[in-house]
Amino acid sequence: MVRIRTRTRYNLGPKGTIILFSLFGILFLIIGISMLSKTVKMANRGISVAAQVSNVKVSKSSNSTSYTPEVTFKTLAGDTVSVTLNKSTNRPAHSVGDKVNIIYLEDDPKTIIVDSFFDKYGFPIIFIVAGIICLFIGVGRILSPKH
Question: Residue 7: what are its φ and ψ, rounded to 5°?
Answer without folding.
Answer: -120, 135
